[in-house]
Each structure stands twice: as C-alpha cells, then as structure tokens.
UniProtKB/TrEMBL annotation:
The chain crosses the membrane at residues 33-51, 77-95, 116-136, 142-161, 173-193, 199-218, 225-258, 307-325, 337-361, 373-396, 408-430. The lineage of its organism: Bacteria, Bacillati, Actinomycetota, Actinomycetes, Micromonosporales. It comes from the Bacteria. Keywords: Antiport, Cell membrane, Ion transport, Membrane, Sodium, Sodium transport, Transmembrane, Transmembrane helix, Transport. It is found in: Cell inner membrane; Cell membrane. It is a multi-pass membrane protein. InterPro entries: Na/H_antiporter_dom_sf, NhaA, Thioredoxin-like_fold, Thioredoxin-like_sf, Thioredoxin_domain. It comes from Micromonospora azadirachtae. This is Na(+)/H(+) antiporter NhaA.
Length: 629
C-alpha cells in the first residue's frame, strides 16, 4: 500500500484508501517528457528524408488493408497512423478536457469562459492572417493549418523557459491548447471531408447514440465501449470524415469523478479478505473492486496516455515531418504565401489573438473574468502557443498537397523554432522587472481555486510560527508513515529558512496501512491537552518504530507530563473526535495519501524536498504581496 519506490526519495507517499486523485501534474509530466521523444523523431524524419527521399516516401506509402468477407478498408501506412493511431491521441485530449470539467480547474464553469474565448481568438486571428497571404489562390484551403497548438511541445517549452512556481500558468496554457485541439478536430471533420457519405455519417451518429445510452444506464464493461468505438471509427472513416474525431468524442463522453468512501472501503475489505485467503477467486475480486473504485476517465488516461505521448505522437512526427530541405525549397519558401502565412500566423497571430481577446474579455466584464495569471504570463502563453506542430501537420496533410504541403511543413517547423525563441525572450524580460512588478506580471491577481476546503482555525489547529503569517503550510500526516518521517526534517529546515510562515499539522492516520498511527495521533492530542503537542509530535517522529502504549507512556514521562491525566485521556479516547474531524477535512479536500501539503490553501504537487517546498513557498509569498486587500 505504499508507492514511490522507484521515484525521487522526496516524492514518495503512503496512499490513503479513502481517496484517489488524478493529478493535473501527472498529465503535465507525461506531456513534457514525451516532447524529447518527439524532437528526436522529428530530427530522424528530416535526416531520413534528406538522405533517402525515395525510401522515405515509398515506405510511408506502403498500402495496408483490412478485409472481412467482401468488405475491405485500405489505407497507406501514413494514413493508418494519421487517422488510426492519432485517434488515441485525441481520445487522451478529450479525456483530459472532460476530467478538468468534472473534477479539475474547470469545475467552476466561469473559469472556462476566458480560456475558451482566448483559444478561439488565438485561432481566428491566425486564420485571417493566413488568408490575407493566400486569398484567391488554391492554397487558401490550408487556413485550418494555423489553428491548433501542440500541447506536448508547448508545455515542454514552458517547463524549460517559464517561471518555476506557477501551476496556474501551465493550467491556463493546457486549457487554451485543448480548446484549440477540440475546435481544430471539428474543423478537420467538417471542412476537409473526402467523398462524404451521409449514410455512413448517420450510422456513426446511431452508434454514438448507443454509447450515450450505455453510459446513461451505467454500463461499465470496457470491451463493449471498445467495440462501439471501433464501429464508430469505421463508419466515420467510410463517411469521408477524418475518424480522429471519434477519439475526441469518446474522450468527452467518459466521465471522471473522485472515488466514494463506499467503493474504496469495499476495495479495502476485499484486499483484507485476499490476505486471509490468497485464492485466485479473491484475487479476481480484489482486482475488480479496485477497478470499480476508479472512474472510467482515470482508467483510460492511465492506459492510453503514455502510449499516445511516447509512441503515437513521435511516430506521427516520423511519418509526416520528413521533407527535403534544399535550395529549391528554401527559395520557394522565401516567397511562398503558404510558408509566410503559416509563420506570421503562428509567430504573430497566435499571441496577438490570445492576448487581445483576453484583454477585451477582462475589460468588457470589468475584470470579473480575467486570466488566472499576469499579463506577462498571458503573453508567454500566447507566444508558446505558436508551436503548432502535431495538429498543424495533420490538417496540412488533408488540406494541401505537392509543393504547397512541403512549404507548409517547413513553415510549421520555422514557426516552432521562432515561437520558442520569442517565448524565451518574454520570460527573460519579465525576470528583469523589479520583484513586485515581476510577481504581478507573472502571477496576476485572480483568485485561485482553494483546494483546502476546511480553512485553518487559529483556535483549533496545531500551529507553529506566527499566527498571522502571510503564508500557511498545512500538512496532512501520519505518525507511522515513513514518508512523513522523511518530510519532517525538511519542514523544520523550511521553518528555519522562512521565519514568517506558519506550519499546521493535521492528522490523517492511515489505519489500514499503519496499525499504530491512530494511537500515536491520540497520544499527541493527549500531550496537547497538557500544552505539549509539538514536543510529543517531535518525539514520535524520532521513534516511529516504537509507537505502542508503553512507548507512548514513556515519551509522556520523558516530557514530564502528568501520566495519570495522559493515561485517562488515552483510555477514554478523548482525542478521537478531534482526529476524526481532521480526517473528514482531508476527505473534503481530496487528500489521497500522506504526506500531503497545502500552501496558502493550494495543494502542493510533486516532490517535498527543501528545494521544491522552498520554491512553492516563495511563489506563495510573491502571490501574497500582490493579493488585493
């Protein structure tokens, strides 16, 4: 029941069977990590295409067919990747957007309005710019190329070049990019069909109606949805519309939710039964119980996201980026309305559309709707959104052909490089601002979603540090948890480094994993009743392997406590209700294990070494300085 053995020693956590959390940070880590593989695949494609252009094209034009009786579906290898494997990529995009709507940042619907409009503005302005260069020509049909942002590469670029302490910045970019992806795929399906077949589209619509019905009645049998998804993909493919839209729709239909106590307790009970009777039957029951506790969205994300990020997108790049870069192409590109239109649309149009739309919405709503970050960060999101790549290449392969297609691909590559350089410049300039202006420019003044749903109460909570400090660090911990023991010296170092923060300890004894955790928590409360909570807290962490009754009594005696009062307090379990309140507050805040930290009400994800926690605290101080009174 512990996890993190293969991780950083400062990122382990004991899982609480009371909650399971699908973190945005996990999604971002996968996206940014896969970007390296995409870059390698891009370089490989360019090298292959320039050293052996004939072999490159002939390989990806290899025909592959699927035949059932007299019915045959035949596509080239490149087309199977672009329309087949990429369906899973857009399934993941749909899943993430649905997760954000159900339990993420977008659960407050008003927070979706500005990123939605910014995303639309970031598409319309580039389209106008592209058409200004290509109006009245055959290449005007390529207007859809400049719509979308490559989420993986944009997030990776932001992780390297952007500020270190703003999760809201990355969340804002993710929302804008996913909006781009959704609209771009709809445009791909509607504006670039091949030999459209209304009958096949009606069949596909009927299949989706069955999917919605199955979802409504609560059917959770995965193979049924897989079969329906494949049938819908085939129907849409036959209709002439690019079938990647099937992945997006299936993702948006897959709901996400935080597991309930009933399901999690049932999974825990099944696991205990298996420990008592380790039979294949009980093993099957445990597996089914654990799966049932997770939402379909969580399960599919876990299953497909690594494959989409580390295999499908790099394979797509390998199959599509390869162009022969010679003098002829460079000469054409220098004057090509396609190349110039793509570069200007992405490098200038994208940031202009996102920034101007965000400004306009904020002004028209009198700042009721404003970006979750400062305007320098909005500018950085705009410039980094000029990295189109994946979806841009996908639409280009449908909208253009021949020399125009190669000119568009070259423009996409140039725009990716230039947008990265411009993004670097934006954040370097922001870093030169005075501290107060820099904080406001990067972090803004918008209110965050508060993850800590039960606020700190000075007359109830156990607090170290000034009661009115501008930054509050709350830890949900378990006295027997080895990771909490590992975090304890880090917390002390943090308190020594920042004298104007307050640290709050809240109990979360994981009794299913640590049998002595509840007793240790009650002993700390018993000591607290005599004014020695923190002294007992520190002693317990120094002796995590000795937490039986006799041990705790020895610690009380060592602290000079009244042993009669201490023993009565434990015997009558007077601290149980107080600990139960902490556990309930952890449940409300979605805490999934120990240790879990909240900094100024915002959950801290990732490692809890001194570097990570210090960076998070510094970000909280910066935010506190610009918070409106």
């Amino acid at each position: 029941m512990t996890r993190g053995a293969s991780r950083s020693p400062w990122s382990g956590q004991t899982t609480w069977v009371g909650r399971v959390d699908a973190s945005l940070r996990s999604f971002l880590r996968t996206e940014t990590g896969s970007a390296r593989v995409v870059v390698v695949a891009t370089v490989a494609a360019l090298v292959w295409a320039n050293l052996g252009p004939t072999s490159y094209e002939s390989f990806w034009h290899t025909p592959l067919s699927v035949q059932v009786g007299e019915w045959t579906l035949s596509r080239e290898l490149r087309s199977w990747i672009n329309s087949g494997l990429m369906t899973l990529f857009f399934l993941v995009a749909g899943l993430e957007l649905r997760r954000d709507f159900d339990i993420g940042e977008l659960r407050e619907r008003r927070r979706f309005t500005l990123p939605l409009l910014a995303g639309l503005g970031g598409m319309l302005v580039p389209i106008v710019i592209y058409l200004a260069f290509n109006a009245g020509t055959a290449t005007a049909s390529g207007w859809g190329v400049v719509m979308a942002t490559d989420t993986a590469l944009a997030l990776a670029t932001l992780a390297v070049l952007g500020p270190r302490f703003s999760d809201r910045l990355r969340g804002f970019l993710l929302t804008v990019a996913v909006v781009d992806d959704v609209v771009a795929i709809v445009v791909l399906a509607v504006a670039y069909p091949e030999h459209p077949s209304p009958v096949a589209l009606l069949v596909a619509a009927g299949i989706f109606a069955v999917v919605v019905l199955a979802r409504t009645v609560g059917l959770r049998y995965g193979p049924v949805y897989l079969l329906l998804g494949v049938a819908a993909w085939v129907a849409v493919s036959v209709s002439g519309v690019d079938p990647v839209v099937v992945g997006l729709l299936m993702g948006l239909l897959t709901y996400a939710y935080a597991p309930g106590r009933v399901e999690l307790q049932r999974a825990s009970d099944l696991f205990r039964l298996f420990r008592e009777q380790p039979t294949p039957q009980f093993a099957h029951s445990v597996r089914a119980g654990l799966i049932a506790a997770l939402s379909p969205n969580d399960r599919l994300q876990h299953l497909y996201h690594p494959w989409a990020s580390y295999l499908i997108v790099p394979l797509f790049a390998l199959a599509n980026v390869g162009i022969v870069i010679d003098r002829e192409l460079l000469a054409r590109a220098a004057t090509s309305p396609v190349t110039i239109g793509v570069v200007v649309a992405y490098v200038i149009g994208k940031p202009a559309g996102i920034i101007l739309t965000s400004r306009l919405v904020a002004r028209l709503t009198h700042n009721r709707l404003r970006p979750p970050v400062g305007w320098a960060a909005v500018t950085g999101v705009g410039t980094v959104s000029g990295i189109g790549f994946t979806v841009a290449l996908l639409i280009a392969s449908h909208a253009l052909s021949g020399p125009a297609l190669n000119e568009a691909k070259f423009g996409i590559l140039v725009a990716t490089v230039v947008s990265s350089v411009v993004t670097w410049s934006v954040f370097r300039l922001a870093a030169r601002l005075p501290e107060a202006r820099r904080a406001r420019a990067l972090l803004g003044t918008a209110d965050e979603i508060v993850d800590l749903l039960v606020p700190v109460q000075t007359d109830r909570d156990h607090i170290r540090g000034p009661a009115e400090a501008p930054v509050t660090v709350v830890e949900y911990g378990d006295f027997e948890c080895p990771y909490c023991g590992q975090a304890e010296p880090v917390v002390r170092e943090l308190l020594a480094e920042f004298t104007n923060i307050r640290y709050v300890w809240r109990h979360l004894p994981l009794t299913e994993v640590h049998p002595h955790a509840q007793l240790a928590a009650e002993a700390a409360e018993a000591a607290g009743e005599q004014g020695a909570f923190w002294e007992m807290h520190d002693l317990i962490f120094e002796h995590q392997d000795a937490l039986r009754n006799a041990d705790l009594l020895h610690y009380a005696d060592q602290l000079g406590l009244d042993l009669v009062r201490f023993r009565e307090y434990l015997t009558e379990r007077r601290g149980a209700d107080r600990i139960s309140e902490d556990v309930d507050s952890a449940d409300l805040s979605g805490v999934s294990g120990t240790p879990t930290f909240f900094i100024n009400g915002r959950r801290h994800h990732g490692a809890y070494d001194i570097v990570a926690l210090s960076a998070a605290v510094k970000g909280a101080f910066a935010q506190a300085k610009i918070r409106p009174e």
